[in-house]
Write a structure and sequence with these properties.
By secondary structure, the chain is mostly helical. It has helices at residues 7-61, 70-78, 117-127, 165-168, 170-216, 232-323, 328-367, 370-401, 406-474, 483-554; strands spanning 90-94, 100-102, 135-141, 144-152, 158-164. It has a five-stranded antiparallel sheet with strand order 2-1-5-4-3. Helix 5 (170-216) packs parallel to helix 6, helix 6 packs antiparallel against helix 10 (483-554) and helix 7 (328-367) runs antiparallel to helix 9. The longest helix has 92 residues, at 232-323. The two termini are 30 Å apart.
Length: 558
């Protein structure tokens, strides 16, 4: 990964580049201005020297046709004409033919001047009868660039003073060299000052960067001293410290909520397991109760069939009583048989009665377990309300957190939805449990009525029937004397049997209805079991979300 340039480096580069640019600009501007000034001064100096020497020549040679000691006089006049300190500067006097009358090199006196474009142009004007105006120009003489000041003087002579341009500008180069040295020294001083200033400026920024990097790494522990500067960086430090404190508070609250949510999820998970187990037990119990009711219904059918047989036998007995005394012996045997069968039927009835009573009591006791479902569903509703409240608080805190809390707001919304679903499921369980309780109460009432009827009426009738058959068996010798009374008793017994048959039919109907009710209870208990499984799955999801939220909060270091 490419390393980014620090603010300190950027400021140092900015100061260095700015300083270098300014120094270069100053040097260039100074060179241009100085060159112009020096050139102007040199030109003016050459021009003035040329004018002054020309005036002296006029004074010395005006009207002097003999020109005695001309060389000496020219030497005296032109020897020191030039720029002081510039060795290449010299005065040269030529006539209109270009023959040098004076030059520093004595050997060249009387010879043609060197190729000089400026003087050649002036001589052309002089030979044409035109006097050239004094001026200063530059030209190349023997490959060397020179400044040339010229003026037409006495006797159509042309005086020009020249100097090498490089020697004239040599002081400028020296000055530029020293200016460059001074600029480098100034640049070094500026860089040192800039480095110190950038260190002072960037030190709190570096501290702030370390703090922000720690926060970005989810480390909210305060291990860095904030800058105490009274500027924007100091204000930024206070804001970062406030943000770190707020984040610590929010994460702490989220962590507490996550722990509570994990605990509630575990409790809800255990409760849902208990509800599911209880629902499975209730389902098995109702199925057993339904099977017992079916067996009871079959027993009542058997009793009804036996009662029909008894009623038919009693009818036969009534007919045979009307036949007379000669059937008394047969009546005695049949009376004994009736007594035996009645006792056996009573024993069967008592056995069936005890089985029905035991099964009913067991079923009623197990049906009371349905009330536990109401308590569990109430607990689920209370937990869902607490979960919903926690979800609301978490959503509020997530909204306060802004962008950083969006992910947690989604989780809080999902937890709230799970709480609402748990509450709705608990309400459905309550409704189903109410129906089950009502059905169980109805079944209990019906079974109690059946038990009371069997215990109070049928038992009494069976005992009376046994007593009567016993008396009939012992009194068969007097059957003729008591035939009328026996006939009356038989008719009464027939009516009683009819009543018993009707009662048994009613019991059979009640048992069928109770069996259907138990089947409905079994079906609804199965629905409760399915809902309990849904609650179980929901609590598993809630537990998973709670664990995920706990893992998220544990990433923060406080």
């Amino acid at each position: 990964m490419k390393k980014l340039l620090s603010i300190k480096g950027k400021i140092a580069i900015l100061l260095a580049s700015t300083s270098i640019f300014m120094i270069i600009a100053i040097l260039v501007a100074a060179r241009i201005v100085t060159s112009k000034n020096v050139e102007q001064i040199c030109e003016n100096y050459l021009y003035d020297a040329c004018i002054s020497a020309s005036n002296t020549l006029y004074e010395s040679f005006w009207g002097d046709s003999e020109r005695t000691d001309m060389t000496v006089r020219l030497q005296f006049i032109l020897n020191n004409v030039g720029i002081e300190g510039v060795r290449s500067s010299e005065a040269i006097l030529v006539d209109k033919d270009g023959t040098m009358l004076y030059t520093n090199d004595i050997n060249k006196i009387g010879t043609k001047m060197d190729s000089n474009a400026v003087i050649e142009k002036v001589l052309e004007k002089v030979n044409a009868g035109t006097i050239a105006t004094a001026d200063v120009e530059s030209c190349v003489v023997n490959g060397v660039e020179k400044y040339v000041a010229y003026m037409c003087t006495v006797n159509n002579w042309v005086l020009y003073v020249q100097a090498d341009k490089s020697e004239v500008l040599a002081p400028i180069d020296t000055m530029n060299f020293y200016c460059t040295i001074v600029g480098i020294i100034v640049l070094g001083i500026i860089l040192v000052i800039g480095f110190v200033m950038t260190s002072v400026i960037t030190k709190p920024i570096k501290t702030m960067t370390e703090i922000i990097n720690s926060i970005s790494g989810l480390d909210l522990r305060s291990s860095h001293a904030l800058p105490a500067t009274k500027d924007e960086i100091g204000e930024m430090g206070k804001a970062v410290e406030a943000m770190r404190g707020n984040l610590s508070s929010i994460v702490s609250d989220i962590n507490d909520v996550a722990q509570m949510l994990v605990e509630d999820s575990n409790a809800l998970y255990e409760i849902s397991e208990q509800v599911s187990s209880a629902s499975s037990d209730n389902s098995a119990t109702t199925e057993q109760l339904a099977a017992g009711m079916e067996e009871t219904s079959a027993s009542t059918d058997l009793i009804s069939n036996n009662i029909v047989d008894v009623r038919n036998n009693i009818s036969n007995v009534a007919v045979k009583i009307n036949e007379g005394t000669k059937l008394a012996g047969l009546s005695e045997n049949k009376a004994n048989d009736i007594n035996t069968r009645t006792k056996q039927s009573n024993d069967n009835r008592m056995q069936i009665y005890k089985e029905i009573k035991d099964i009913s009591e067991i079923a009623i006791d197990k049906a009371k377990a349905v009330s536990q479902i109401q308590e569990l569903s109430a607990g689920i509703e209370e937990i869902s309300e607490q979960t919903n409240l926690l979800s609301l608080n978490a959503s509020i805190e997530a909204a306060r957190a802004g962008e950083a809390g969006k992910g947690f707001a989604v989780v809080a919304g999902e937890v709230g939805n799970l709480a609402v679903e748990s509450s709705n499921t608990a309400k459905k369980i309550n409704q189903i449990v109410d129906d089950v309780v009502e059905s169980v109460n109805t079944l209990t009432s019906c079974l109690q009525r059946c038990m009371n009827f069997l215990e109070q009426n049928v038992q009494t009738d069976y005992e009376a029937f046994i007593d009567s058959s016993t008396e009939l068996s012992t009194e068969t010798k007097d059957i003729v004397a008591f035939m009328t009374e026996a006939n009356h008793e038989i008719n009464s017994l027939k009516e009683t049997i009819d009543t018993i048959a009707d009662a048994m039919e009613a019991i059979n109907t009640t048992m069928s209805e109770a069996s259907l009710g138990v089947m409905n209870i079994a079906s609804k208990t199965s629905d409760v079991d399915d809902l309990s499984k849904e609650i179980y799955d929901t609590t598993q999801n809630c537990k998973e979300f709670a664990n995920r939220l706990n893992v998220i909060t544990q990433k923060f270091q406080m």
